[in-house]
Amino acid sequence: MALIVDVFPARSDNYGYLLHDEATGRTAALDAPEAAAIRAALTRRGWTLTDIFITHHHIDHVEAIPELKAAFGARVVGPRGEADKIEGLDELVGEGDTVSLGETRFDILEAPGHTLGHIVYHDAAGKHLFSADALFSLGVGRMFEGTPGPMWEGVKRLRALPDDTLVYCGHEYTQSNAKFALSIDPDNAALQARAAEVEALRAEGKPTIPFRLGADKKANPFLRADAPELARYYGIDPSDVAAVFAAIRKGKDDF
To answer: Which residues form a coiled coil (predicted)?
Structure first.
């Protein structure tokens, strides 16, 4: 039996996800951006919500927790490092922990930077990574709380996962990410190909999510902060990768 992932839009540019364990019928919402969107997806699929898996404390990822928990009695799992910022958590997890959804197992990885306690959920057997705002297609989340060194280390941990991992992130930002990436890495053939694919998908009103991690490793400048050509672009010593990562992040912030 496998994990079924249902993808749907929420709020203005969020993605919502339902994770359904076929063997047991347990169904989790990955983050809780909007109750109405999650309820509609449950109805469309004929599933019942049993769990809510939270990645970080930002309001567009937690706002629906109270309503959904009250309606379904769902177990709410979330980051230990942000327990004081998120209401309604039943189970706290961090780096090295495992969360079960029926027969599906998720390894928890910490990915600080966007928020200090941000976690991601990795289904190694099914090759799914639910990265929320720690990793986007061709980008990463804005560094609201962290610092470049630890954020780069977290990004490297995600980069080390298998190339055939399917990544499900928190927002549809790929088109703008591609424009910035091309501005600093214009000769990257993999990036050029992905940017063209993204333009075609968006022109047809289709999502750019999920994406293969292996392809993103070749095209995403944040996953390539240790590439010499990006260090040269910013005039930074290639050995100071955290500084290169910081320069890329600032470049995107100001783009």
So the answer is: none
